[in-house]
Amino acid sequence: MCGRYDTTGRFAWAEIHRALSTYGTVATAPLNLEPNDDVRPTTRQAIARLEDGAFHVEQARWGFIPFWANGKTLDAACRGKGGKTLSTFNARTDVSPMYRAAVKSQRCVAPASGWYEWTGEKGAKVKHRFARKDGGLIWFAGVWSRVQLSDVGETATFTIFTGPSEGFLADYHDRQPVILEPEEITAWLDCANDTQPFFDARRPDRFEVGLS
């Protein structure tokens, strides 16, 4: 899964702009993106999406809220039947109904420097950091939404897709985030393209792990 990630190292507006502008026009004015070595769900993080043929970068809440939550409070929008808090920071690649409409029209990528998994028993867990071997940015594949909530107003949200782990990554968790190569970003954001080839391309050899 992907319940924590970081935005340190080469994560900066200049790097994000440089990567995206290789494949198209970036329509967004520069953003002040603060580095964070412990990005958690419900915080606002950078995402990129396509609109009118150009990349738009904005900050969105990590934790998807579907369109049908319009008009609710933030707390109510994040709860399911019986009042249970919904876990929407990750979406499985066997896409559930909550995300199907967004897959067809509202895909995004979330840039990062690395992500974390924990192993071991409760009380003695070991934190592991995964990053690209080449030190480049990681591009998580996701979907986004924009909802109007009664207490906090217009809110952009997103989630990150995860699929079955492969190779050495399976030693740390049975699920891994879907991570795109830079040259795949535009194709992923084109909602006319099938999602499955991106979901199937796990390629664990791109990554390395270290203790954090």
Short descriptors:
5 helices, 212 residues, eight-stranded mixed β-sheet, five-stranded antiparallel β-sheet, alpha+beta, single chain, globular
Instruction: Give the radius of gyration.
Output: 17 Å
Average of per-residue pLDDT values: 96
β-strand number: 13
Structural class: alpha+beta
User: What is the percentage of strand-forming residues?
Assistant: 35-45%
Weakly predicted, low-confidence segments: none
Distance between the termini: 17 Å
Please work out how many helical segments DSSP would assign.
5
Overall outline: globular
Question: The biggest beta sheet, please?
Answer: 8 strands, mixed
Query: Could you give the order of the helices and strands?
Result: EHEEEHEHEEEEEEEHHE
Q: What fraction, in percent, of the residue positions are helical?
A: 10-25%
Fold blueprint:
Layout: E1 5-7, H1 13-21, E2 36-39, E3 44-51, E4 54-62, H2 74-77, E5 90-92, H3 97-105, E6 107-112, E7 114-119, E8 126-132, E9 138-149, E10 153-164, E11 175-177, E12 179-180, H4 185-189, H5 196-200, E13 207-211
Parallel strand pairs: 4-10, 5-10
Antiparallel strand pairs: 1-2, 1-7, 3-4, 6-9, 7-8, 8-13, 9-10, 9-12, 10-11
Description:
It is built from five helices and 13 strands. With 212 residues, it is an alpha+beta fold. Strands 3, 4, 5, 6, 9, 10, 11 and 12 form an eight-stranded mixed sheet that branches. A hairpin with a 6-residue loop joins strand 7 and strand 8. It is globular and about 45 Å long. The two termini are 17 Å apart.
